[in-house]
Amino acid sequence: MMELDYKDALVNSPQWIKDAWNEYNKLDLKTREKTPFLWFVLGKGKGTPPFKASKKDSKYKSVSSNPNVICGNCIFYYVQPVRGFKICSQIRGQVDYDGICRFWDGK
C-alpha cells in the first residue's frame, strides 16, 4: 500500500487532520490515487472542517442583490472536482453560484 510521506507536515497539525490522514490511508490505493487528500478533508460527504464559518455568521444569501458581486466570482469559491459541489473555503456547506456573503473578495 502506497503511503505518501507527510510526517513533517503532520507534526504541528490539529488532531482532526491527523485523524483524517489516518482514515485516508486506510482507503485502497486505487481510491487514494483518484482522491486528493485535500478533497477528502474538505468534504467527502462527512461535513466541514471546524474552521469554517456558518452561513448565518457569514451573512450568506443564496442570491446576491448585485450581479457583479457573487460567489461565482469570489476568490473563495470553487467547484468540488469529483461531485461538482459548489463550495466556499470560508463557510460551511454548499453555496450558490449567484450567492453572496460578507467574506466576498473579487478575483
Provide an overview of this structure:
This protein has 107 residues and is mainly α. The chain has helices at residues 7-11, 15-24, 29-34, 37-41; strands at residues 77-79, 86-88. The chain has two domains: 13-49, no CATH class; 52-107, High-Potential Iron-Sulfur Protein, Chain A (Irregular), CATH 4.10.490.10. It contains four helices and two strands, in the order ααααββ. A two-stranded antiparallel sheet has the order 1-2. A hairpin with a 6-residue loop joins strand 1 (77-79) and strand 2. The longest helix is centred in the first third of the chain and has 10 residues, at 15-24.
Please outline the helices and strands.
Layout: H1 7-11, H2 15-24, H3 29-34, H4 37-41, E1 77-79, E2 86-88
Antiparallel strand pairs: 1-2
Whole-number total of structural domains: 2
Strand content: 5-15%
Structural class: mainly alpha
Integer average pLDDT: 82
Q: What's the β-strand tally? A: 2
Give the % helix: 10-25%
Please state how the strands of the largest beta sheet are arranged side by side.
1-2
The CATH topology of the largest domain comes to High-Potential Iron-Sulfur Protein, Chain A
CATH architecture of the largest domain: Irregular
